[in-house]
Amino acid sequence: MKVIICLDDNGGMLFNNRRQSRDKEVLKDVFNNLEGEKLYISPFSQKLFEEFSDRLIIDDALLLKAQKKDTCFIENKCLKGVLDINEIIVYKWNRIYPSDFKCDVDFSNYTLTETVDFKGFSHEKITKETYKR
Amino acid sequence: MKNKRILTPLIIVVVIFILMMGGCMGSDSAVVETEPTENTSVSSAVSVAEVPEFKGEPYYVINNNIPDLSTEDADKTYFENYAPLDNLGRCGVAFACLGTETMPTEERGEIGQVKPSGWKTAKYDCVDGKYLYNRCHLIGFQLSGENANERNLITGTRYMNVQGMLPFENMVADYIKEKGNHVLYRITPVFEGNELVARGVQMEAFSVEDEGEGICFNVYCYNNQPGVKIYYATGDNEAYDDDPALDYGKESTGEKCDYVLNTNSKKIHLPDCSSAKSMSDKNREEYCGTKDELLNKGYTECGQCNP
Backbone phi, then psi, for A61, in 5-degree steps? Predict the structure, then answer.
């Protein structure tokens, strides 16, 4: 499966059970690359994607249910030990936020295949990195 | 031009009048000036005794991150209040309802003319940018557009400014820019007794329109600098080479590293193996996990250290 995550410069994802940041341009980019497929999200992410409600599969067990061709947007799940991930897309905020929940992916198991910078709605520069196994 | 509801001119006049009266109270006034001066109206503000000693973490979470702020303090519009300096020249509480309206519309200007209480110029090699102290905004410029407001600037270490406060300011600023919402935001400098330099600042924030769903925190940021001892009474300072905070994180990283990998030769080494020590940084990787995991990934054991 393909996994999408957003990280700050310290590999942080959440603080006080809230996402560190958000950007409309990231959401647009996520769906531009889905080619009509639906996106798996957990209930935690539902409000973030409320404008895209017809293109979602909402399931807290998304990492167990998603198949090889599926894409999961992950905000509050550990990924260490999830064996079926063949691609990870990381949106980097290029900022430091407070964090108490960090990404646990060992990126040394993946190869960085693409890096793209773009301007966000509320972020000067967002870096999109694609890692493949 | 920004149109801020800060303090009405009438209140400012009253405050100045009271301060002038305080300065004309005869010989007893000298005694009054040595007493701790309260210029905070926040009864819930944390005290130095309530937070653990600084050990290398830039902030400490208070009350499970629940701030003592209520949306009754905001009517989904914006304001900024900065307490007047006390008779020791110290800042008090800065309280605001932040929104896009309060954010800067002009480039940041000079602030060097402001000398916050306890201000000293000191440089250390161990400090990012060398200078120990920053003129540290209570409410950051990116949030308030307040530049050289003496009621909003304290003597803060580089560490507190950048490692402690800035990440929280970034989070609030980007939330406001993205959502267009408002955030109740209160920064309380925490002084002990008559000390001129704050021991830390309490930062509280709560997003208004979504009732804290986007932003909600209550933390204490330490006004410390690893490797430097600070005398908070005066702002004096000296190198502190044995500061345990300098080792924060290093020890645990060492313990977690089970093996050193050569990603080029695909060899597994023990951390103290001579091959691991002489390995080029380009091929070196520290690994936390079991040897079986590595063998399954195609790595083989070093014949020298037999990991």
Answer: -100, 35
ipTM of the complex: 0.96
Closest CA to A14 of A45, A43, A39: A45
Tally C-beta pairs within 8 A across A and B. Answer: 46
Q: How many residues does chain B have?
A: 307
Architecture of domain A2-132 in this structure: 3-Layer(aba) Sandwich (3.40)
Decide: pTM greater than 0.80: no
* Pairing relationship of beta strands B284-287 and B259-262 according to DSSP bridges: antiparallel
What is the tens place of the pLDDT at every residue in B5-52?
A: 444 343 443 333 333 333 333 333 222 233 344 454 566 688 888 999
- SS3 call for B88: coil
Q: Which residues on B lie below 8 Å from A98 (Cβ)?
A: 59, 167-168, 171, 217, 219
Give the model confidence (pLDDT) of A62-78 as tens digits.
999 999 999 999 999 99
**Partner-chain residue, chosen from A16, A18, A96, that has the shortest CB–CB distance to B167:** A96
Which residues of chain A lie closer than 8 angstroms to B297, CB-CB? Answer: 109
